[in-house]
């Protein structure tokens, strides 16, 4: 009942872009993506690509020229956040506007519809087309969850950007979805300081050598406690099993290409060298 109320109150009609390819490669920002692109760049040929979150802040963005771009950072369309969050959001928007010289579909959470900064992106750069998805958490019986998934009313709790990325890829109709840069090796980087502050080093392919321990914030402010962080992780890893079951119901295959990934829901696929 709670999910139904959330769907009715929060979810809005969704129109996803029509894919021009059969397969999709989702480029997660994990540390392993850098080596993947060095060794297996040719694997992207003939496939659609989807970048996520801060990918546009890197030099690789204009090299890859992703077809789709998913941002799932709710605090990026909220003003009541810490100054560092606002700075990262403004830098990302500027890079998207200034760097995108090809046709690209930018996919945002429905909350971004109320943010002038995001809406104005298409005015500043006509190469970008905006789409919105419903990140509404859906729980309950399998038949009910899958009904909501199919109609783009919601998804498993989107505590990580890969969750809406995979869900969108499934509902767009791709036949095979490949995950790269999906390390999810956060448990190795988590610790509690003497003052009981919980720190996590979130490493990405663009800062794997310079990333430093930091607190994990809640909606762009304050800090999470250990049980909140672990609960967030649990929901993310569980969501991948829900997505894999949903994909199978639509005869879609999801492969995890990420070396040493902590995600245990999807079939692993190891590519030959230089492929």
Largest sheet: 8 strands, parallel
Unreliable sequence segments: none
CATH C-level:
Alpha Beta
Oligomer: single chain
Task: Describe the structure in your own words.
The structure is a single chain. The chain has about 280 residues and is of the alpha/beta class. The protein has a single domain (about 20-260), classed as sialyltransferase cstii, chain A (Alpha-Beta Complex). The chain is built from 9 helices and 10 strands. It has helices at about 1-10, 35-40, 60-65, 85-100, 115-120, 120-125, 140-150, 160-170, 225-250; strands at about 25, 50, 70, 105-110, 130-135, 175-180, 190, 200, 255, 265-270. The strands form 2 sheets. An 8-stranded parallel sheet has the order 5-4-3-2-1-6-9-10, with helices on one face. A hairpin with a 5-residue loop joins strand 7 (about 190) and strand 8. Helix 8 packs parallel to helix 9 (about 225-250).
Entry summary:
The protein has 275 residues and is of the alpha/beta class. It contains nine helices and ten strands.
Task: Tell me the layout of helices and strands.
Layout: H1 2-10, E1 23-27, H2 33-40, E2 48-52, H3 60-64, E3 68-71, H4 83-99, E4 104-109, H5 116-119, H6 121-124, E5 128-133, H7 142-150, H8 162-172, E6 176-180, E7 190-192, E8 198-200, H9 226-249, E9 253-256, E10 267-268
Parallel strand pairs: 1-2, 1-6, 2-3, 3-4, 4-5, 6-9, 9-10
Antiparallel strand pairs: 7-8
Helix pairs in contact: 8-9
Which key features would you list for this structure?
alpha/beta, sialyltransferase cstii, chain A, eight-stranded parallel sheet, two-stranded antiparallel sheet, 9 helices, globular
